[in-house]
Every structure is written in C-alpha cells, then in structure tokens.
Amino acid sequence: MAKVRFLAHGTSWEVEVPVGTSVLQASKQIHAPEGDACGGVCACSTCHVYVTRGKELLSEAEEDEEDILDKAFDVRLSSRLGCQAKIERDGEIECEISRESLDAFYNEHPQVPDPRKKR
C-alpha cells in the first residue's frame, strides 16, 4: 500500500491505496479537490499536481502527459497529471494540488464551498 497526502489551501487529505492506483483515483477516494474535467483520460490539465515527495514511487511521465503539461499553467519540475501518475511502489507520496486544478474542481463542483473565497 502507498500513503498519498494531498495539500491545498492549508488543508491536507491522506489516503492509503494499493499499487496501481493513479494519483487522481487516490484523490477521489477522499474527496480531495483535484479537478478532472476530461474524466482522467489525459485530454486536459485540470488534474495537475506538484509531487513534492515520493516521485520515485510513480510511473514515469510519457509523451502524451508531457504534451498536455506543455499547455498547463505554472508547470514545474515536479508537475504531473494525476490521471497519468500511477503508483508503482509502496511508500509515501505528497502532492500539492495546483491552482489550475483547484479552480477546475470548484468550477466542476459549485455545491462545494471554495475556502479560497471570502464569504
């Protein structure tokens, strides 16, 4: 099993998942606010995360993922698409959810309050 921690707007979510799970699938299990406008088929960049720990536990980025990341906002060396980053080994992984992904999530789920907005 791998432990995956998601970070966003001062909150963290943690889940244990089996090897073979994608980062996006892990986020959905605990309702972390990671976007997925295309449904997780590598056709957009709304599941963009920054892997801050455990990148060696994930599959390597393939050309399709890199092509989509070329169109993403604020891409860093640690950037991955959650739908394409598959967990290959047990251990601890930490992902910061990108602003792009948070924006997509709250746009896709208007019923979920966006803690970044003042009330």
Tell me the number of strands. 5
Q: What summary fits the major beta sheet?
A: 5 strands, mixed
CATH architecture: Roll
Distance between the termini: 39 Å
CA radius of gyration is 13 Å
Query: Which class of secondary structure composition applies to the elements?
Result: alpha+beta
Order of helices and strands: EEHEHEEH
The H-level CATH homologous superfamily, spelled out, is Beta-grasp domain
What is the percent of helical residues? 10-25%
Q: Identify low-pLDDT runs.
A: none
| Oligomer classification | single chain
Rounded mean pLDDT is 97
Shape: globular
Keywords:
alpha+beta; Ubiquitin-like (UB roll); 119 residues
Can you put this structure into words, describing what you see?
This protein has one domain: Ubiquitin-like (UB roll). A hairpin with a 2-residue loop joins strand 1 and strand 2. The model has no long low-confidence stretch (mean pLDDT 97). The chain is globular, with a radius of gyration of 13 Å. It has helices at 23-29, 63-69, 99-108, and strands at residues 2-8, 11-17, 48-53, 79-81, 91-97. With 119 residues, it is α+β, with helices and mostly antiparallel strands. It is 20% helix and 25% strand.
Question: In a few lines, what is going on in this structure?
Answer:
The protein is built from three helices and five strands, in the order ββαβαββα. With 119 residues, the protein is α+β, with helices and mostly antiparallel strands.
